Amino acid sequence: MSREVKFVKKIDWLSILLYFLLVGIGWINIYSASVTDTSIGIFDMTQLYGKQLVFISTSILLIILILSVEAKFYERFSSIIYIIGLLSLLGLMVFGKNINGATSWYAIGSFTLQPSEFAKAATVLALAKFLSDIQTNINVFRDQLIAFAIILAPPVLIMLQPDAGSAMVYLAFFFVLYREGLPSFYLWIGLSLVLLFIITLKVGYIYTIIATLILGLVCIFIIFKKVLKRRRKTTLALTSLVAAIGFVLAVNYIFYNIFQQHHRDRFTLVLGLEKDPVKLEKIRKTFGFNTNQSEIAIGSGGFWGKGWQKGTRTKGDFVPEQDTDYIFTTVGEEWGFVGSSVVIFLFIALLLRILHRAEQQKNKFSRVYGYSVAAILFFHFAINIGMVIGLFPTVGIPLPFFSYGGSGLWGFTILLFIFIKLDANRINEW
């Protein structure tokens, strides 16, 4: 049996099937959300659905290229790919095009490319390479700092564009680190900081500091009382308390000086920070409009939906960005609860399949890569769905394989099919 035939048999065809099902259903909904004249051909490049077909076609070429490259290439050149990814983000400061207030794209004529979509795959490769190194021990503080630096360098550059939604996705990597043995207290620290941030905005820093002091002193007393000989733990608790108070004091500065106005308005809307009903209503009309219209559109679909191309909210352009960030509203209105459930099932099936195959990897590089892909896809999927049904504020995170756009589709395709290539070679010698 030839080497090519053996490789074809090893490929995870179920993941590929799920990929094409999601891409296909996504295109059907992009067509429905953007078509204005059914007499125009589906390949018309003046229409979004025509452009998306081109993106899908080029994605197939990408898939062939990715699967043709030797699996060892991705591990061997991961550091170089990561550096190229960082340079592409840095280059935006000089050559980037500003669209909707963010300098996140390179423009060549009418064609635009968003490097942050490809930086995710570069970061996954670099992190997998570092964690799979025999000298790396994630329980050692030095190696933890290096892993954090690999993860945080791209989002820092992305925030300079600024693009908070794309930067937020990198939080998904910390679940991968936790799977590989990162001490759980880092997750608790992260959750605690988020909680302190929200509480401080809601009730003010004075009350938050008082509550933090009381809770911290109680914890220190318990540690000191029960483990008197372990002074290191007491010192750590005191340091954490001082750091928490310092963070609380910095919240207002972060909120009013680092966050953009539209970020502040969204927090104001979700947390109910604005007391003036007139100002609150103005913010609600500006930043709550998308979510309200999205919820109305999805709710109007009922159990079976109104039918393809029969969505009145979709056809009436009530939901802004309906072919990108809010594409799921078209599914909810035209396909109803049943169609929405099918789409969610397909995403969950793909995620579980990736996790299952990742756990089977004999090579640590492939395993870390697989878990990273699953984490990124889950983060996008969960936040986007939560956003369109009102659980999360609008942050500009697209739905993988569904939302309109070449950079997003190509980026997710590269992410997934590098893992499919690695998985197909899992029983080979490395």
Automatic annotation (TrEMBL):
InterPro entries named among the record's database cross-references: FtsW/RodA (IPR001182)
Subcellular location: Membrane
Transmembrane region(s): 12-32, 52-70, 77-96, 145-178, 185-201, 207-224, 236-256, 335-356, 368-389, 401-420
Membrane topology: Multi-pass membrane protein
Keyword Transmembrane: yes
UniProtKB keywords: Cell shape, Membrane, Transmembrane, Transmembrane helix
Keyword set includes RNA-binding: no
Name of the featured protein: Rod shape-determining protein RodA
